[in-house]
Amino acid sequence: MNQEPWLWRTVFGVCRFCQGMAAVLVLAIMVLTLWEVVSRYLFHNPSTWTLPLGDYLLLYVTYLGTAATFAQGGHIRVDFVLEWLGPRWRQRCEQWAECISLVYIFTLGYLTYRLLAIAFVRGEYDDSTMHLPLVFINGIMPVGMLLMLLASGLRIRRALKNRPGAGRG
Predict the structure, then answer these.
(1) Sequence spans of domains, the chain
(2) Cβ neighbours for 108, distance < 8 A, ≥ 6 positions apart
(3) H helices of 38-86, where?
(4) So what's the pLDDT on residue 1?
(5) 14-50: pLDDT as tens digits
(6) Could you give the 3-state DSSP secondary structure of residue 48?
């Protein structure tokens, strides 16, 4: 039995949820920034926690948003070269680019996982006034990379199954 439709819907559903979360976090960053301006210039009592929290939320926005964008095929690429190619070569180049992206995502995912593991084993904390465990800060990076890896793998699988001549014996 083919599990791809279920898996496809699940991964892309999670990525859509991440996109919504990233949007909510952008709003939270805006509120934090507004609070910092008000507390600093109106009350003359600047907050010590808004800047680091905003930075950490921006990290979450980056990895959640990137996973959602990547799942939708919105990653950065140079299209003008593809415009010169015919449909067959364009499709091949797009598939190769997807495979190269997969290798990059896997490598970066592994490195971010190692950062998370080191922070967990050592029990490291950030140096800001919030003094948060780095596990919470670094934890989003491998999660985002895993979502990108799954989305990329599913996109490659779908492209290979839908190519002309596939599935004919």
Answers:
(1) 4-161
(2) 145
(3) 50-71, 79-84
(4) 44
(5) 989 999 999 999 999 999 999 999 999 999 998 889 9
(6) coil
Per-residue pLDDT tens for 50-102?
A: 999 999 999 999 999 988 888 887 766 667 777 788 888 888 888 888 888 88
Distance CA 94, CA 88 (A): 10
Q: How far is CA 53 from CA 24, 58, 109, in A?
A: 14, 8, 24
What gap in Å lies between CA 145 and CA 131, rounded to an integer? 25
User: Checking phi first, is residue 114 left (phi over 0); if not, alpha (psi -120 to 50) or beta?
Assistant: alpha
Q: How many residues does the chain have?
A: 169
Query: Whose CA is closest to 140, among 102, 122, 113, 120?
Result: 113
Secondary structure class of 133 (helix, strand, coil): strand
Query: Rounded to two decimals, what is the model's pTM?
Result: 0.81
Candidates 140, 5, 13; CA nearest to 68 is 13
CB neighbour list of residue 99: distance below 8 Å, 6 or more residues apart: 156
